[in-house]
Design the sequence.
């Protein structure tokens, strides 16, 4: 147990505007000997020279290399870093939930109590009780076989000894607080019956059940759509004000942090580069890497093409529907993913298509390239391509190419990079001999700033950003006129994203390429496209020049999207 | 920047690398990675060696032993293992050398295993690949059929088949192969369905790569891993099935023999001549053991996450 | 659920019909007949016998007659066991077969599942290697090898347990055949359980459960066990089929008066009706048990619902 003084004077340290819930909470805390400290007492949590090494068969791999920071009561601290920075390892180390092969050194103190030397039993008392967690994966973080009510009540029974009707009542209350509609009905739902955002709300309810001192939020919004993201952040902020807990917010996305955190810690390669008040860090970053992360928000915009530029691709009333087979003999349900889209892409233009998941934007892109069955009219460079069969489409394929989102899934793992890039050449330029093909592959690789000497390697030997360059090279080697870019930067770290965007811009300028750029990321779309289409549920919500739409969005949905992406309204700022 | 005139790529087809592309060292393919991991797995490597020894012994052993398959040694009828007489594993009740018979039996058992596994592999891969690749209605119908086949009491039908058409070794091949392809087809179909949705296959379609090329260059090489693992696990299953049929008296006929037949003969004599049961059982068990270890090792090597 | 069950039962009918048809014609095209014993019967007697059993009718007629009788629950008379109907033989043999099979499947679950769980929790430990190597041995040594060895060691050499016989299903007589019959399934289930447990223990919701502060055994019992059981439950269908097939051999070796022995004997003797009877009976049993397994699965996994 902590030795922090819990005198009766604690109440004076709390904000004056206390409601009944706060009073109840303070009472509970006093009972547990965990009452809030008076000012000047040590911070809520203190991490000192934390080191984590993973003991792998081929030697120790350091993940965190001596990180120190503190977290005060009621404060929001953001731990920011790109993949491999050690931010999640740090937060998992606090709970001591790292796999056994992780060796942890240093000190983690919660109210002066050293967690690294605490007994397993003591750690279990703290987990879910004083330290609660919300994870990144809302779809898989809840037990699929238990009703959500049971999963909330489980914590209450464990740490509060609350059972039966009282526990159910409390669970309902929590569900209501986290904004689940119709909690009385939802409490008996299974996770798969809820949406991703709702599941994340349930996770938050579980985390808040015991009114923790510290909430660790590990990328809690990354897997969610932007509008949902904003709602969850708003919820976290308001609950923080209500319960006065500290939040350790782990994220790769600086733009969220700006409006959310009091202080920021920037991590890279397991080291803490910079710590400071959010405002200071953003205004005068001390470290070049931090500056780069801040600037990593893609900048610039694209000038529109001449109004009389020739139309390269045009589509009228494109529709795509899928039949969803219900499991086991259920009736087939037709689902229309794209509902009558008109589109005109002029040479040299970049049309951005934005929308959230399920908006049909990727389906539309695939339909335009005739990779999917669709209805309507599509013509490419004046040729009606709808009636063409596979072999009829083949000559056109070299002129219209595609780059996909997932740099790990879009390269065949058993072919070398050279084989992957040259595959299109074999189809479209059978006249080339081996050496000529090889030379073209080298050209394409240098064009995307990769070393041609690496062409005999396999995709798994490259990083995410490099793989995306390989995917671009595969498209470029055919010298296409039109490139479909389906979320080509979404799976990449911000700093890598910027370089890929620069590359795409550069290639467009050099070769006069025409892009159709699909993304959920408004910042990227704004930087890259000159014309914008906003999609929702298979339909166009709004379209027009990018500049105009960003200046003055006409539709409510567009405004919502933009607000969520650029200025999440997190209610009153916390203090 | 305003619009530039669409310039051709590069410099009119001429490449900066014409003539002398830079040297490019070969990378590490997944296959080599997997092989390296397999080599580190001691149990699997031991199994591989033992398996090789058993296979070699069965192939050339019968010529090296001083006895013929059905040669009767009147001086040694039903005698136990004895180095002096040359019957290292003893003889059966008819005075025939047990080692020679066991190695001969091994030939039959292993050949049944190989042929039947091959039959199941061919049917299963074709069926599964077609079902998965075409999907939709075809897939539905084809998998419905597999479901029905699954729910049949197959062993009974195989036994009936053996009874009906007599103990014919080719029939054993076909019958066992016909039973075992069901699992294979499900595995292949699952693989193909999953691969078909992968973006690299879509990218190949976008490049205009022909269907056949997509299948041979992208689908088959990537589905191969699980298939190989399953094949190594099918071989012992088939051996087991063959010996089960032989044990029931439905397997190969005299003068041919197989491990199952020998075990069945040994069972009847186990009180007086236990070596007759133990020797073929040991060979059978060692083979099955090795193949299972090898299958496990291959699976771990191809998919290191599972260990 | 009810309508799903009915649907499945209806679907079982054509499947069963396929089984019946296949085995009927397979039996009949087989060379030889039920009456070629050691000594040849005088032609006129054989003629009479054939007529009595309707074997002189054309095959399609016989087939239809068999189906007609089957619908009325009549499996016909046995050719070899002259005074018995096939239904009588089956109902006499079934209790022993059922008892043997039930114990075997129970043993497979009650031993296989805990072994798999232990191996998964103590992954890569000595306990894990011991359990998994033993399991592999269990798979590698077939039951028709284990059965005579068990009988030899415990029945003949040590004399602790009877080497054969039924004795009304006394536990002493049951123990060896149950072990021989279940050992392979124990091994399969243990391996399967280990693999799925390892996968489940690495899943995100187990991390959530740990982050709640649950003790490790509560995490395993409450959160990991049920999802990890799912593959094992879906394996129960094949496991049951395997045990039923295995019982054919085991009943023979241990001299247990079950149904299994009728099948092979009947097939070798061309006892058409007896073979058909056993096939139909086992076919229906396997279909029924598969349905029960599927329903069980849907009860364990709320993401599968059989109500449309």
Sequence:
């Amino acid at each position: 147990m902590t030795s922090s003084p819990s005198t009766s004077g604690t109440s004076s340290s709390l904000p004056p505007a206390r409601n009944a819930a706060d009073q109840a909470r303070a009472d509970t805390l006093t009972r547990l000997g965990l009452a809030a400290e008076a000012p000047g007492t040590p911070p809520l949590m203190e991490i000192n020279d934390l080191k984590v090494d993973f003991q792998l068969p081929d030697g120790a791999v350091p993940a965190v290399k001596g990180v120190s920071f503190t977290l005060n009561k009621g404060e929001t601290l953001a731990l920011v870093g790109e993949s491999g920075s050690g931010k999640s390892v740090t937060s998992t180390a606090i709970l001591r939930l790292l796999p056994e092969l992780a060796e942890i050194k240093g000190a983690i103190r919660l109210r002066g109590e050293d967690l690294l030397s605490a007994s397993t039993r003591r750690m279990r008392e703290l987990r879910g009780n004083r330290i609660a967690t919300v994870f990144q994966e809302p779809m898989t973080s809840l037990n699929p076989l238990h009703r959500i009510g049971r999963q909330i009540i489980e914590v209450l029974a464990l740490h509060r000894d609350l059972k039966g009707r009282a526990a159910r009542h409390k669970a309902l209350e929590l569900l209501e607080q986290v904004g689940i509609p119709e909690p009385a009905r939802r409490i008996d739902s299974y996770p798969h019956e809820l949406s991703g955002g709702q599941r994340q709300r349930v996770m938050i309810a579980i985390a808040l059940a015991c009114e923790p001192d510290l909430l660790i939020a590990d990328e809690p919004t990354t897997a969610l759509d932007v509008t949902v993201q904003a709602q969850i952040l708003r919820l976290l902020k308001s609950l923080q004000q209500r319960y006065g807990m500290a939040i350790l917010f782990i994220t790769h996305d600086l733009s969220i942090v700006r409006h959310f955190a009091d202080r920021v810690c920037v991590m890279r390669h397991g080291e803490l580069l910079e710590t400071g008040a959010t405002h200071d860090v953003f205004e005068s970053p001390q470290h070049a890497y931090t500056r780069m992360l801040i600037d990593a928000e893609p900048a610039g915009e694209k000038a529109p093409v001449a109004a009389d530029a020739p139309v390269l691709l045009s589509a009228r009333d494109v529709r795509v529907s899928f039949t969803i087979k219900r499991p086991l003999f259920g009736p087939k349900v037709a689902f229309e993913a794209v509902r009558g889209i008109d589109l005109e892409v002029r040479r040299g233009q970049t049309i951005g298509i934005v929308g959230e998941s399920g908006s049909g934007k990727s389906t539309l892109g695939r339909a335009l390239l005739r990779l999917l069955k669709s209805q309507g009219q599509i013509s490419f460079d004046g040729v009606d391509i709808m009636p063409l069969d596979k072999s009829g489409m083949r000559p056109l394929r070299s002129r219209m190419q595609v780059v996909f989102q997932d740099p790990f899934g879009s390269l065949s793992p058993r072919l070398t990079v050279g084989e992957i890039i040259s595959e299109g050449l074999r189809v479209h330029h059978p006249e080339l001999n081996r050496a000529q093909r090889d030379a073209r592959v080298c050209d394409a690789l240098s064009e995307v700033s990769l070393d041609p000497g690496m062409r005999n390697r396999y995709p798994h030997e490259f990083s995410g950003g490099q793989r995306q360059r390989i995917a671009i090279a595969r498209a470029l080697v055919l010298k296409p006129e039109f490139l479909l870019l389906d979320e080509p930067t979404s799976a990449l770290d911000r700093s890598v994203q910027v370089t890929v965007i620069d590359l795409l811009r550069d290639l467009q300028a050099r070769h006069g390429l025409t892009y159709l750029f699909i993304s959920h990321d408004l910042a990227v779309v704004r930087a890259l496209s000159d014309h914008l289409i906003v999609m929702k549920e298979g339909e166009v919500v709004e379209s027009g020049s990018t500049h105009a739409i960003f200046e003055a969005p006409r539709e409510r949905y567009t405004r919502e999207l933009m607000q969520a992406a650029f200025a999440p309204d997190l209610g009153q700022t916390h203090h | 920047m305003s619009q530039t005139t669409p310039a051709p790529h590069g410099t009119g087809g001429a490449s900066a690398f014409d003539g002398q592309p830079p040297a490019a060292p070969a990378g590490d393919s997944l296959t080599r990675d997997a092989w390296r991991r397999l080599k580190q797995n001691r149990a699997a490597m031991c199994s591989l060696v033992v398996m090789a020894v058993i296979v070699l012994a069965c192939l050339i052993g019968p010529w090296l032993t001083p006895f013929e398959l059905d040669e009767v040694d009147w001086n040694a009828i039903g005698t136990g293992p004895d180095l002096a007489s040359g019957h290292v594993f003893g003889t059966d009740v008819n005075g025939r050398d047990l080692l020679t018979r066991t190695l001969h039996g091994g030939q039959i058992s292993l050949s049944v295993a190989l042929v039947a596994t091959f039959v199941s592999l061919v049917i299963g891969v074709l069926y599964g690949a077609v079902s998965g690749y075409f999907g939709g209605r075809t897939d539905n119908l084809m998998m419905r059929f597999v479901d029905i086949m699954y729910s049949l009491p197959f062993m009974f039908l195989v036994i009936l088949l053996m009874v009906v058409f007599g103990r014919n070794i080719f029939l054993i091949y076909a019958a066992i192969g016909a039973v075992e392809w069901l699992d294979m087809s499900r595995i292949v179909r699952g693989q193909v369905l999953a691969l078909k949705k992968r973006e690299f296959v879509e990218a190949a379609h976008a490049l205009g790569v022909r269907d056949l090329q997509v299948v041979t260059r992208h689908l088959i090489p990537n589905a191969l891993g699980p298939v190989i693992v399953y094949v190594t696990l099918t071989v012992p299953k088939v051996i087991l099935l063959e010996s089960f049929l032989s044990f029931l008296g439905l397997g190969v006929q005299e003068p041919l023999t197989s491990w199952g037949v020998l075990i069945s003969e040994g069972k009847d004599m186990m009180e007086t001549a236990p070596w007759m049961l133990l020797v073929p059982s040991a060979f059978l068990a060692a083979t099955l053991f090795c193949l299972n270890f090898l299958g496990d090792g291959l699976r771990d090597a191809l998919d290191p996450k599972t260990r | 659920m009810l309508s799903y069950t009915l649907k499945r039962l209806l679907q079982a009918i054509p499947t069963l019909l396929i089984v019946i048809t296949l085995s009927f014609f397979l039996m009949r095209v087989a060379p030889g007949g039920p009456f070629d014993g050691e000594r040849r019967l005088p032609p006129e007697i054989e003629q009479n016998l054939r007529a009595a059993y309707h074997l002189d009718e054309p095959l399609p007629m016989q087939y239809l007659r068999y189906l007609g009788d089957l619908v009325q629950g009549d499996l016909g008379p046995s050719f070899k066991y002259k005074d018995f109907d096939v239904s009588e033989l089956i109902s006499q043999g079934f209790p022993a077969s059922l008892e043997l099979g039930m114990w075997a499947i129970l043993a497979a679950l009650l031993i296989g599942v805990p072994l798999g769980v232990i191996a998964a929790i103590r992954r890569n430990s000595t306990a894990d290697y011991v359990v998994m190597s033993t399991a592999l041995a269990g798979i590698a040594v077939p039951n028709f090898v284990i059965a005579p060895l068990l009988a030899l060691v415990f029945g003949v050499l040590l004399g602790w347990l009877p080497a054969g016989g039924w004795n009304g299903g006394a536990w002493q007589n049951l123990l060896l055949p149950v072990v021989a019959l279940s050992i392979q399934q124990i091994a399969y289930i243990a391996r399967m359980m280990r693999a799925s447990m390892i996968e489940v223990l690495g899943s995100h919701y187990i991390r959530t459960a740990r982050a709640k502060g649950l003790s490790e055994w509560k995490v395993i019992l409450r959160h990991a066990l049920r999802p990890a059981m799912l593959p094992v439950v879906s394996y129960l269908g094949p496991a049951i089929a395997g045990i039923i097939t295995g019982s054919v051999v085991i009943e023979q070796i241990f001299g247990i008066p079950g149904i299994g022995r009728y099948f092979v004997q009947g097939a070798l003797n061309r006892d058409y009706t007896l073979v058909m009877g056993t096939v139909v009976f086992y076919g229906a049993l396997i279909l029924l048990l598969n349905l029960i397994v599927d329903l069980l699965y849907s009860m364990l996994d709320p993401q599968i619902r059989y109500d449309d």
Remarks:
- Residues 154 and 179 of chain B are 7 Å apart (CA to CA).
